[in-house]
Each structure stands twice: as C-alpha cells, then as structure tokens.
Fold:
Amino acid sequence: MIEGLVLTHGAIGAELVKVVAMILGPVAGLEAETNEGRSALQTADVVATWLAGRAPGAEGLIFIDEHGGSCASAARLGGAEAAGVPVLSGVNLAMLLAFATWREDLPRAELVQRIVDQGRKAVAVVGAGR
Amino acid sequence: MKLVLARIDDRFIHGQVTVGWGQWLRPDLILLASDDIAEDPWQARVYASTAAPGTAVSVLSLGEAAATLRQVPGGDREPPRVILLTGSPADMHALMSLGVPLSRVNVGGMHFAAGKQQLLPSLYVDRDDLAVFRALLRQGVRLTAQTVPGAREVLLDDGLLASMEARL
Structure:
C-alpha cells in the first residue's frame, strides 16, 4: 500500500483529510501534519518520524501546500529524497481523492502523475460570472 | 548592499519571508547567515530552492556574511536590496560583533523548544535569548517582533524583556 502524509500550514491538511474521510470513508495510511508552532528543523523531524513509521514495505507520498515554503524545506530536510518518497505541492481535495482512489491500483509513478493531473483539472473557472 | 530587513527566524526562507516581506520589500538577495547550514551544501540548496524566482539566495557562514554585508556600495548602480536572515538572536548578535551595522532587527519566528517560554504567539525564548536581546538593545538596535508587514508590530523593549525574565 502507498501511504500519504499531508504536510501543510495551519489546519489545511487536517481538514482536507477529514473531508476525504467524509466522502470516501476513513482512509488508512493517510495522515496530516502541520508546521504550526514548529521551526523548519522541528517540522523536518515530523517528516522523518513519519518516514520511519511507515508500515513495512509501504511506499510513501508527501503532499505539501506550497512549493516555496517551510513545508517544502521540511519535507526535503526530513529525508523524503533519501527515502525515495515523492513530494507533491499544491495539495487540494481532488489530489487526495485521487490518491485514495487509485493508490492500490497504480504503481507509484503512475499514481503520482494521475494525482497531479486530477489536481490540475480541479483548478478551473466555474461559471464566467457577469 | 542595502539591508532592507534583518530578521531572526528559525524557519529561515519560507512564505512569510518570500511572499510577506518579499512582495513588500522587493529584495534582490536573501542572505541566509548560518554556520551550520553553510557547511552543509545539501541543506543550503534546499533552503535556496524555496525562494521566489528572481530572488537570489546566498547561504553564508557568519564570517562570510559579515564580510559581504560590510562591503561599501560603490559606483552609480543602485546597491542590491538584501534581506538578512539568521536562525537565532545569538547569530544576529554575532554579525554585529563582526562589524555589521544594524539599527533595526525584526524577530519573525522563534518556535517552541525545550526550556523556552512563550513571549508572543510566534516567539519562545529562554534566558540566553533574553540576554542577547538585551545586548542588542544596549547597542542601540530597535528590536521588534512582527511576522509579516501587515501584522501587529511589538516593540521588544527593556520592560517587556524584564516581564518575561520574571516568568522564566
């Protein structure tokens, strides 16, 4: 199974994971963490702990909210690259729904592409307005 | 070089700096001064990669940073606008001791760690930090806590530091 960590500012990640569970039911192996109240290195420790705590044989994916920020730094400083775990920025609900829907059917590389595609599709102008 | 912001922030380069202060101050360069990070090229690359496109980043040791910041601008060109970042009050004070002239220091974020007490929402300190803040005040530095330009600015003066010290 591929496990996921949603690492964001404030409660964005926790709320997204909560909404995914409301839509699909509880998703095992999908956790949220925040950088709130933490330095860059403290947040990196959170990532390192998550990486070390994954189930044996489980692959991982890390979602962050912003490409240029402390969550991005922390994901990398925490060892995502060394562990071969991809880090995807710009997390939105569509990305997490895609993760939960296809993580058992697709190899990780394809899953990553599917998640990115679904996330991008979800950003759209809905109605042209007046 | 024109120092537009000297900031203490243990997250170094992140959204509050690149977006919050960056959009306001339009820096040409973010100078991250840290002996630990400067001696680890990989860490330095990670931090540098989080800056906004168009903003250069230098990760330098305290000695190198001080030498760079002491340079007197010459010629007709506008000197580059610089945001200086350190991860601790001690490092900022060390730069002053190495000859970097600082009249204002912004305290952006010092997060919780063992032995530290909360002074403000994003500011946890211990006695060592307070001693360095006092040293900066004695050297005439205007010390303020402010996360981003639109947020409330809190003057870290002797009175506030004394009240904190009494709680430690």
